Amino acid sequence: MTTTTATAQVDQQAAPGKTPGAARGPRRTGRIRRIALPYLLLLPALLLELLVHLVPMAIGILMSFKELTQFFIRDWTTAPWSGFDNYQLSVDFDAPVGEALLHSFLVTCGFTLLSVGLCWLLGTATAIFLQDTFRGRALLRTLFLIPYALPVYTAVITWAFMFQHDNGLVNHVLHDQLGLTDKPSFWLIGDNSFIALLTVSVWKGWPFAFLIVMAGLQNIPRELYEAAALDGSGMWQQIRHITLPSLRPVNQVLVLVLFLWTFNDFNTPFALFGKAAPEAADLISIHIYQSSFVTWNFGTGSAMSVLLLLFLLVVTGVYLLLTSRRRKTADV
């Protein structure tokens, strides 16, 4: 009987369908399929990203090392190699080109700080005060999202008509109706162009902050506010000690996105002022466009674009590093 049992065990081990290696085969194949499936689903998006962004970026970096002017537009590959001359010209702040780029960079920094700060402030305040239930809240939420839903060029061109000197709505209200100014102001030229640009940027940008903050507020338990109210905390104390700390992860992403969108904004100044923006509103995006497509110096314009890309990468990396450290410190 012992011999029969041993023979059966040997037959089971020798059976081809019962071997451990054969059992692991289908399991290993299924594991490979599970691992490869996400990459296959992402492959179309990766190819589109490669064609739309990465390939033009690589060509732009190559163009920044060439003396590419209007004489080589037909075949830009024949343009002579200039090395780092375009970069040296761009960062030479004693020369006209570098001085103009530095001025544009400083204007863009000031514009970005004001626009991002005001967008965040208006969006956060509006989202917080619309958390309470009252009649007409849904209608107000819908109305506040209209600037974000409108196409950029439609909204900016409408503002350009409103900022007209002779028959614009802004001068009609400020000068004719309210009498706040001595005479109609020029909003699309001169120093007032910065105020006009900032107004349009905040008007079309703050609904995005409002939408993101409003979504983040849904994750804060109402029990925290009820407990704070029982302890005698007022509205401002609840906002300071409950709302803002709970929104910190949302605000970290929101501020970074608003910064990148605003610093790189080209559509707003181009639709508002055209190809030649006033000196007070000369953002770096429109300045690079003028250097490339107005003066036909694509080599210098490409070098400026690469410098802008490096600056944004450094700022983004430092910001993410600082926010991650603060998050770890708060968790500890």
Question: What multimeric state do the chains show?
Answer: single chain
Biggest beta sheet attributes: none
> Structural class of the secondary structure composition?
mainly alpha
Hey, roughly how much beta strand do the residues contain? under 5%
Secondary-structure element series = HHHHHHHHHHHHHHH
The helix tally amounts to 15
The percentage helix is over 70%
Any idea what the shape is?
Answer: globular
Structural commentary:
It is a multi-pass membrane protein. The chain is mainly alpha-helical. The chain has 15 helices and no strands. The longest helix has about 45 residues, at about 20-65. The N and C termini lie far apart (about 65 Å). The relative contact order is 0.11. Mean pLDDT is about 85; it is low at about 1-20.
Task: Sum this structure up briefly.
With 332 residues, this protein is mostly helical. The chain has 15 helices and no strands. InterPro entries: ABC_transporter_permease, MetI-like, MetI-like_sf.
Pick out its properties.
332 residues, mainly alpha
Task: Set out the fold topology.
Elements: H1 2-14, H2 20-63, H3 85-91, H4 96-129, H5 137-144, H6 146-149, H7 152-162, H8 169-177, H9 192-217, H10 222-230, H11 235-246, H12 248-263, H13 267-273, H14 284-294, H15 298-331
